[in-house]
Design brief:
single chain; about 60 residues; mainly alpha
Length: about 60
């Protein structure tokens, strides 16, 4: 009994929200969007590095 009381008194925030429900489909779609955006950023970073190499090689 004492252990349960200690946990219930804890100031730790809840890991979940009772007001918000996310479906598995929505979670998967968001993961795909995130992966796509991450790939776009990687591509942009690569292009920027290549562009900077070409600019500095001219000087």
């Amino acid at each position: 009994m004492e252990v349960k009381k200690k946990f219930s008194i804890s100031n730790a925030p809840d890991f979940f929200s009772e007001e918000m429900i996310i479906t598995k489909k929505s979670l998967n779609e968001n993961q795909l969007k995130f992966t796509y955006q991450k790939q776009l950023i990687s591509d942009l970073d690569y292009k920027h590095k290549e562009w900077s190499k070409s600019i500095y090689s001219k000087f």
